[in-house]
Amino acid sequence: MRFSVKTGAPLLAMALALTACGTSGGDDEEASGGGGEAGTCEDVSLGYFGALTGSAANLGINIRNGVELAVDQFNEENADCQVGLEEYDSQGSPDQATGLATQAIGDETVIGIVGPAFSGESETAGPIFAEEGLPTITASATNPTLAENGWDTFQRILGNDASQGPAAASYISDVLQSQSVFVVDDASAYGKGLADIVNEELGDVVVGDDTIQTGQTDFSATVTAIRSSNAEAVFFGGYYAEAGLLVQQMRAGGVEATFVVADGVKDPGFIEAAGDAAEGTIITCPCLPPEESQEFFDAYQEAYDTAPATYSAEAYDAANVFLEGILEGNTDRESLLEWVNDYEGEQTTKTVKFDETGEVENISVWAYKVVNGEIVADQEIETD
């Protein structure tokens, strides 16, 4: 797949109203799956599965809030069909995923999961959900191999790292025009997987690589290796906590290379950790800038007294796919899974339609930049 950077690209059309009320995806007769009576439901819940505490909590809370907003709006519009929301706090750790997935399976009212939020926990929880037929839509887990397991219950509402990785490499080559790049990963399923793709795409331009660990705070050895390589750019695959400390120590060590990261770093926590060293960082993300959907942006701002952040809008869309199905009478796991697998409809970030592996067909990758202490949209990186 070839990528090109497009400056000033036309923005995606936003056709979805704020609630799921009265809408449906695809052909109603095929997609409804033969569930209960349309417009009524009892003891039905969605689940959010991801970090609410721990070092990656900010990313998880962004996602949970998007789900919660969709459920709250739905309940306001549908007095006869009230949907609950259960939360499964994984702390972003695969070690927590087995127990939480088992708990979700045992919660009989839960008929759909938005999540898991991270790739590592998705690898662990995915087989459990698949075996029990509990449909899931992740709004943020981007490791490409998740769609290669044959899980009928797996859906992903954003592009994976097979699109984000080449896009990041394209930006480094075409926009930054870097002739030498150092690649660092955090050894996680997400970070290493993404860094490996970028490394492969850049080829001979890569002058060195290194691996750190999640939770590590001293990066002096890595900084020394980067400085010795004379790299013009550094790509880091990992999350915002380590990224902030790494770039701070890079700048303190005299490394001026452009710092390029991905969606796991697109959070104010990165700037808090890095301070002034964050300035100029490039962040790629298979996510539309949330401010491009003004209705959603305003509703989120009103509900949470803060702007929507990374994957809030994608989580909102994932929840609304489920909620549309519930409104059409799909109030058990089997029929809701059939609904999701057959779904096609307009949501806030894109037209949503999943292929046979669970990947969404309509994807986009954007580059963001830290400017004056804020993460702002830079340009869309388009697939050819």
From TrEMBL:
Keyword Repeat attached: no
Transmembrane segment boundaries: none
Organism of this sequence: Blastococcus aurantiacus
Protein name, as recorded: Branched-chain amino acid transport system substrate-binding protein
Signal peptide as annotated in the record: 1-22
A GO BP entry: amino acid transport
Protein family per UniProt: Belongs to the leucine-binding protein family.
Source species, domain of life: Bacteria
Keyword Transmembrane recorded: no
Keywords: Amino-acid transport, Signal, Transport
